[in-house]
Design a protein that fits this description.
alpha+beta, four-stranded antiparallel sheet, 15% helix, elongated
């Protein structure tokens, strides 16, 4: 035989309030609150996405995106343009260059051969500033030595064991957007001869 509900002790009975459904106005309030939160999130994401298009260049917008006027981009074959203080700090300064029409690159103005080594300065070659870059003042190089790179940041000699690091760049109408949070690091070349710019240990 089964046990009837009425046979249970009174203290086990569910109160009449437990059978009442949630008031309809509370359900509407919860749905409205969820819709409001979703709407606020959509607006915030949209504002962040449109910030580079709304800001007056030069401007650093959320997400470490630097907005520049397209007029600062050098013409094809012209020397690179250094973008530094006061627009960005020295550690994130970079060169804008246009190797060919419509291709805009942003190379970091600092370079190191390997992660364990100190950084060198990157500058255009004094004798031919429109022909690429050179890394100078490298503590690991012999005095006067330098590493050479082409206009696309590729290594040109044995001292340049890897290419130049660059920031992600996009061109939108009359402005250039450089994403300082997206650094593309060049990989080290393998199977290369011993760099001539780096001093070698003495044999015992």
């Amino acid at each position: 035989m089964g046990t009837r509900y009425e046979d249970q002790p009174v203290e086990h009975w569910a109160g009449p309030g437990s059978l009442d459904p949630t008031p309809v106005w509370k359900q509407y309030l919860l749905v409205a609150l969820l819709l409001l939160v979703g709407l606020v999130a959509i607006v915030a994401i949209s504002v962040l996405a449109l910030a580079p298009l709304l800001a007056a260049p030069p401007a650093l917008v959320p997400g470490d995106r630097l907005v520049l006027d397209a007029n600062v981009v050098p013409a094809v074959g012209a020397p690179p343009k250094l973008i530094g203080a006061p627009i960005v700090d020295d550690a994130r300064s970079f060169y804008l260059i246009q190797p060919e029409k419509g291709q805009v690159l942003a190379f970091r103005a600092r370079w190191r051969a390997r992660a364990s080594e100190p950084e060198c300065r990157v500058v255009p070659p004094p004798s031919s500033p429109n022909q690429g870059f050179t890394a100078i003042d490298c503590p690991v190089f012999v005095p006067g030595a330098a590493a050479l790179f082409d206009v696309r940041g590729g290594p040109l000699d044995a001292a340049a064991v890897r290419g130049l690091d660059q920031y992600l760049v996009s061109v939108s109408g009359d402005r250039v957007i450089v994403n300082l949070s997206r650094l593309i690091e060049a990989s080290e070349r393998t199977g290369m001869p011993v760099p001539t710019g780096i001093p070698q240990p003495q044999q015992p």
